[in-house]
């Protein structure tokens, strides 16, 4: 395999956990709820997976338990933001702090213990003979799942009436309410499912990427995922490419070192955020005469009796 | 208004819960030490350790905690430990608090240097030991291992095992401690397998499994057949094992993460020295010093060999280890050229410890640069 393929392969494996997290974030934000709890939910997802897999050695059960755990954190965030109408930023930060602390506490007994897991791979020997596509011939099942999920979410959000409802709830909840859509139910559902996807991001990190629990193992990837939501303009397909781009940057930096390009690693670490700012500026400028693309009531709790 | 109140209360609850689970202080001793000195004639030291991570990190803090266990067992005490103390103002606060009711405080990370010195000034009757630093005082001593000796032994094993003469090394940060270890490693590999190239990539992390795995993979993609890592996480070893490539870690025995492909790596035994320090405090003979412990002193060592390491390689390494233990071997003995071709240590000369601890160049055969 040549250099480009190798980097692409590294980008895909590095970007997949980001992709799950960003898809979860998009679901949250499309419904009008900012979720800054990504980092904490990822950590909880990872630690719960570690604990349960070491107990049961059953991937499916572990996955389900992890979904429930991260869904519960999502439920907490949803309760605070939707039912009590708390400040979404504060609630999200609280979820992150809570998740970071709780995961460290729960993970004490499994810290550093190697997880003997093997993730089923999907082998497409057909692709082996095709020059460039050969990197896709042996990817694990979760990578395919994440790619499929991006497409499904794209179709859901842009091609179904439910997706239209979701957009309406995120843009103008009072109108959707008048149309007979239950804003509360919609928001709850998407926040909880979104949180579950963030949990899957943690699950992928610990089951595939680095199979042993270490306190704070996400090391900031939850925040990169939040930047990625904006970078991807709330579009699951853009998120797919964005995640691989951000995921590939790490790998790119190390490869540049091998071939003696003298680029400071701090500069490379800055790129995701810099790229996000550039995309914000660029799309803001390009769409300056059009309505903004972001969900219009993002960050605002919905209050039926409120008058405008 | 009521809603606001509920919100505020909920938030407060969450913060408190979060804080509780993050709480890391284990105040275990205190009274025990006091009781001891009241009831018996023997002076029972009240010992405290400040950790940068958690004892379960599988690396740096684990090695210190093993030392703490030996101290506890030897003197029948229970030392206070404070985990996950960030370097900076927090460290100073923690050390200050510990200084109120402890006799000996071990601060086990480089970044605790200035806080340790500043607290030590206010507590002249408390003994402070700071790991890896370079500032001492009346009541502050420092200690460090000769990482280059254990690094040399690891390099010997790597050099004897590599077939294509391409070794990868994921360095943590380009600081002297890491640089001299990589240099010693390379010199050793070349001594058994001339022309061996060591490809170095800096992860700029001590502990970030995802980044370290990427760094490892970029080296593996280059075709190295032995991969060494300087970080505490086993991510690099695991990535190497997945491709059937030999792996080496750092600080602690990491064989469990790659049983089939593990070689060995530098480990540190702080315990005997900790016991020595506490004993000298009891005897009243302690004096401030900058202690440097190598193979001879038993502080630096290598982990037990992995199960697939050939006997021949093991013998080679053990022989050299014996030589070091007898004080017959110097790692940085000339001629040594750096990787830009400049002669750094002339024929027949040996580098002084000061020069080694300030090393900022890579030896010939290292494929990599030190970022400015």
CATH fold assignment of chain A: ABC transporter involved in vitamin B12 uptake, BtuC
- The H-and-E topology of chain B, N to C, reads as HEHEHEHEHEEHEHEHEHEEHEEHEEHE
CATH architecture of the largest domain in chain B: 3-Layer(aba) Sandwich
Largest sheet of chain A: 2 strands, antiparallel
Give the overall silhouette of chain A: globular
Instruction: Look up the CATH topology of the largest domain in chain B.
Output: Rossmann fold
Short description:
Chain A has 308 residues and is mainly alpha-helical.
Question: How are the SSEs placed, and which strands pair?
Answer:
The complex is a heterodimer of chains A (308) and B (372).
Chain A: H1 3-30, H2 38-56, H3 59-83, H4 88-106, E1 121-123, E2 138-140, H5 141-159, H6 161-171, H7 173-179, H8 183-209, H9 221-231, H10 236-258, H11 265-286
Antiparallel strand pairs in A: 1-2
Helix pairs in contact in A: 1-5, 1-8, 1-9, 1-10, 2-3, 2-4, 2-8, 2-9, 3-4, 3-8, 5-6, 5-10, 6-7, 9-10, 9-11, 10-11
Chain B: H1 2-22, E1 25-26, H2 31-39, E2 47-50, H3 60-75, E3 80-82, H4 89-100, E4 104-107, H5 113-122, E5 127-131, E6 140-145, H6 147-161, E7 166-171, H7 176-192, E8 197-202, H8 209-221, E9 226-229, H9 235-242, E10 246-248, E11 266-268, H10 271-283, E12 290-293, E13 300-302, H11 311-325, E14 336-337, E15 343-345, H12 353-356, E16 366-367
Parallel strand pairs in B: 2-3, 2-4, 4-5, 5-6, 6-12, 7-8, 7-9, 8-16, 9-10
Antiparallel strand pairs in B: 1-3, 11-13, 14-15
Helix pairs in contact in B: 3-10, 4-5, 6-7, 6-11, 8-9
């Amino acid at each position: 395999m040549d250099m480009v393929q190798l980097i692409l392969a590294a980008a895909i494996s590095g970007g997949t956990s980001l992709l799950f997290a960003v898809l979860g974030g998009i679901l949250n934000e499309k419904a009008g709820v900012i979720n800054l709890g990504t980092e904490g939910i990822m950590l909880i997802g990872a630690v719960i997976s570690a604990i349960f897999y070491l107990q049961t050695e059953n991937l499916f059960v572990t996955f389900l338990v992890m979904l429930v755990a991260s869904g519960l954190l999502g439920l907490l965030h949803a309760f605070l933001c939707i039912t009590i109408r708390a400040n979404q930023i504060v609630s999200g930060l609280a979820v992150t702090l809570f998740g970071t602390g709780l995961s460290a506490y729960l993970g004490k007994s499994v810290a550093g213990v190697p997880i003997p897991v093997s993730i089923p791979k999907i082998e497409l020997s057909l692709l082996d003979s095709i020059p460039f596509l050969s990197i896709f011939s042996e990817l694990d099942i979760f990578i395919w799942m994440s790619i499929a999920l991006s497409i499904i979410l794209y179709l859901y959000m842009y091609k179904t009436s439910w997706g239209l409802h979701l957009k309406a709830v995120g843009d103008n909840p009072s109108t959707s309410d008048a149309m007979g859509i239950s804003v509360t139910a919609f928001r709850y559902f998407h926040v909880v499912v979104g949180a579950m996807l963030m949990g899957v991001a943690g699950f992928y990190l610990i089951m595939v990427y680095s199979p042993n629990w270490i306190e704070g193992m996400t090391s900031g990837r939850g925040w990169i995922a939040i930047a990625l939501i904006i970078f991807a303009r709330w579009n699951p397909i853009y998120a797919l490419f964005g995640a691989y781009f951000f995921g590939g940057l790490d790998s790119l930096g190390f490869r540049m070192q091998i071939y003696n390009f003298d680029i400071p690693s701090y500069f490379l670490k800055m790129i995701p955020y810099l790229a996000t700012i550039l995309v914000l500026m660029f799309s803001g400028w390009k769409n300056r005469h059009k309505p903004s693309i972001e969900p219009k009531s993002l960050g605002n709790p919905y209050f039926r009796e409120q008058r405008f | 208004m009521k809603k606001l109140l509920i919100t505020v209360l909920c938030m407060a609850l969450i913060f408190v819960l979060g804080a509780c689970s993050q709480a890391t202080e284990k105040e275990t001793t205190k009274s025990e030490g006091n009781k001891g000195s009241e009831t018996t004639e023997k002076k029972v030291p009240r010992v405290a350790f400040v950790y940068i991570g958690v004892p379960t990190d599988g690396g740096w803090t684990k090695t210190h905690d093993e030392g703490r266990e030996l101290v506890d067992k030897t003197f029948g005490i229970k030392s206070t430990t404070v985990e996950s103390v960030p370097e900076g103002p927090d460290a100073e606060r923690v050390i200050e608090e510990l200084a109120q009711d402890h006799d000996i405080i071990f601060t086990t990370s480089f970044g605790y240097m200035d806080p340790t010195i500043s607290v030590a000034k206010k507590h002249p009757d408390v003994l402070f030991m700071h790991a890896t630093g370079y500032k001492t005082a009346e009541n502050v001593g420092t200690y460090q291992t000769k990482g280059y000796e254990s690094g040399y032994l690891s390099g010997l094993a790597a050099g004897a095992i590599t077939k294509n003469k391409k070794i990868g090394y994921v360095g943590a940060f380009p600081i002297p401690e890491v640089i001299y270890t990589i240099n010693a490693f390379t010199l050793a590999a070349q001594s058994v397998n001339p022309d061996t190239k060591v490809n170095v990539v800096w992860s700029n992390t001590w502990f970030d499994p995802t980044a370290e795995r990427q760094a490892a993979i970029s080296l593996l993609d280059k075709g190295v057949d032995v991969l060494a890592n300087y970080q505490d996480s086993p991510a690099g070893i695991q990535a190497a094992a997945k491709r059937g490539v030999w792996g080496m870690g750092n600080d602690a025995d990491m064989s469990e993460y790659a049983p089939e492909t593990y070689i060995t790596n530098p480990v540190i035994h702080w315990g005997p020295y900790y016991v020595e320090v506490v004993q000298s405090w009891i005897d009243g003979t302690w004096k401030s010093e900058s202690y440097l412990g190598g193979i001879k002193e038993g502080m630096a060592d290598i982990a037990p060999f992995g199960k697939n390491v050939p006997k021949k390689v093991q013998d080679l390494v053990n022989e050299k280890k014996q030589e070091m233990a007898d004080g017959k071997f110097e790692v940085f003995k000339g001629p040594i050229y750096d990787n830009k071709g400049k002669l750094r240590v002339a024929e027949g000369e040996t580098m002084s410890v000061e020069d080694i601890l300030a090393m900022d160049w890579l030896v010939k055969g290292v494929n990599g640069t030190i970022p400015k």
